[in-house]
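[Meeting: bench + compute handoff]

Bench side (C.D.) handed over the final construct sequence. Compute side (W.E.) agreed to return the predicted structure before the next meeting so the bench team could plan truncations. Sequence as handed over:
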Amino acid sequence: MRFDTESTICAIATGSEGAYRGAIRVTGAHAVSVAAKAFPNRPESTWTANGAVRFQETIRLDRLGLLPVDVFVWPDSRSYTGQPSVELHCLGNTIVLQSIQAKLIECGAVLAQPGEFTLRAFLAGRLDLTQCEAVLGVIHAANDRSLNVALSQLAGGLSQPLSELRSSLVNLLADIEAGLDFVEEDIAFISKTQIGDRLDSARSVVESLLQQMESRAAQTVQLQVAIVGAPNAGKSSLVNAIAEQNVSIVSSEPGTTRDYIRIRLDLDGIQIDILDTAGIEDADSTTPRGMAQQFTREQIDQADLILYCRSVEEERDVGGWANSHLLKTPNTQTWLLHTKCDLISEGSAYLNRSEREFLLSNRERASVEGLMQALRAWALEQQENVNQVVPITAARCQASLTKAIQAIAHAHEATLQSRGDEIIASEIRLALEEIGLVAGTVYTDDILDALFSRFCIGK
């Protein structure tokens, strides 16, 4: 990508499908004069105002004649790009928008490259790099959840903690270097204990951000729920009941499910993958059933929630269920589901075995609905706790935050071992450089090219 911020660019800023309203953007040093040429009958005073101006006008197009447009003028640096800018709003017909764009190019503008408007906003200090990535997240949001994450980041949801962290480390570095300036006079501006405490605090913030970003980047969907249990525990029947259609094979023959079945649910705007796994059993790893066991274990390791099915046809003493090797996942919540409960007259003997327990009968929709309501509540709770970071930001920032943690750890170790303030200060500078890469205060052309090449023209 060629970073030419001196040219005056234009592009259609709205979608290509056609709509009631559309917009064409112009920005650059000569944006106002380009627009003035498109409206030759407009008084010159319109284009020399000190502040933003809005007016209605008509534009003459070769094939379409006169068309009404709303014109918005920002004659100085107080615009999205930090340059003089003009927007023309009109009917969102594709032919109309393309004709106006061609008119502006005739008047001296050049067609913008993908992401060039947001790039100029970044270079002008209007947005930091994480907010630019949030703009891309808004453009490509596939659901309400993705859109809300991007909007939160665009509003500074990630910029603020990064800015506060950077400010804290800069102040700490200043205190340490002030002591270096007066080392011969034995003046201590900050104690070793204070340095250690402030480094601990900084490291905690960085680790929290890294953990959140890793969580977000690893999610191909928002939440994954694995249904596990012994063969013939009613797992496939439960999946069919949840999906309200036959997606899994149901048979009285154990081991019918050899691979996992995945269905995707939308619970109040939150996407959840439900996985029907092969029944847990001992099997030779070289056989199809043994391979199915490996698939099951992999899905359990990746799950956000485990639904452990146990049929009431099995023995009533289920106290040993929690000792299953499947459930040795301390960070994953597990619910116990008693399936085929239509086969018993009383269910009280099956309660109070785990934090969340459900009596299920696939013949009684109400029992499945109770589980679905609990899943909705769980999903909403997870949504509140999940990291608000656009995936592209998470992928870019993980390596830098890891290096920042290492530098802060080295600074803390140097403090404890009294290696000297010069070494502590050098490690803090390394941490600041890595944090700067995350926030966009430090960047390279390669980073900008990788980001803005993904944008569409007009953004």
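W.E. noted at the follow-up: The mean pLDDT is 76. C.D. will use this when planning the next construct.
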